[in-house]
TrEMBL record:
Keyword entries, A-Z: ATP-binding, Kinase, Nucleotide-binding, Serine/threonine-protein kinase, Transferase
Entries under Gene3D superfamilies matching the protein: Histidine kinase-like ATPase, C-terminal domain
The keyword Chloroplast is assigned to this record: no
Name of the featured protein: ATP-binding protein
Gene Ontology MF term list: ATP binding
Natural source organism: Streptomyces canarius
Classification via InterPro entries: Anti-sigma-factor_SerPK, HATPase_C_sf, HATPase_dom
Histidine kinase/HSP90-like ATPase domain boundaries: 11-111
Source organism superkingdom: Bacteria
Length: 129
């Protein structure tokens, strides 16, 4: 069973550091803080860049789930035209590596699409407390 926390954020780039702080403060002494902060940073940034959440008046939600052996980081956005997918980025491209970074640190990751939005999540192994 996961214990969950959720917080809403405005769809503005300056909210991404607040999302990182939210996750870091919840996981201090409880989980893989650095990996969780990386995950929420990438997912929140993607929500702003690639979904309606980054539009005027948009918003996104961060959900942190804490279980005995897993930490689940989830970002719920307002949806967009494309689904999350791994990109092949060249050395010259500035973006396109976020989901690859997440895949490298996570046990698993995925997404769920709804009519009015979607959820993108990653599960991280939690070291024994």
């Amino acid at each position: 069973m996961l214990t969950k926390w959720c917080r809403a954020f405005q769809g503005l780039p300056e909210e991404v550091p607040h999302a990182r702080h939210f996750v870091a403060s919840l996981l201090a002494d409880r989980g893989p803080v650095n990996d969780a902060v990386l995950v929420v940073s990438e997912l929140a940034t993607n929500a702003l860049r690639h979904t309606v959440s980054g539009s005027d008046g948009g918003r996104f939600f961060v959900i942190v789930g804490l279980g005995d052996d897993v930490v689940r980081i989830e970002v719920v956005d307002q949806g967009g035209e494309l689904v999350p997918h791994l990109c092949h980025a060249t050395d010259r491209e500035e973006g396109g590596r976020g989901l690859r970074l997440i895949a490298a640190v996570a046990k698993n990751w995925g997404y769920t699409v709804w009519r009015d939005g979607r959820s993108v999540w990653a599960e991280l192994a939690r070291a024994s407390a």
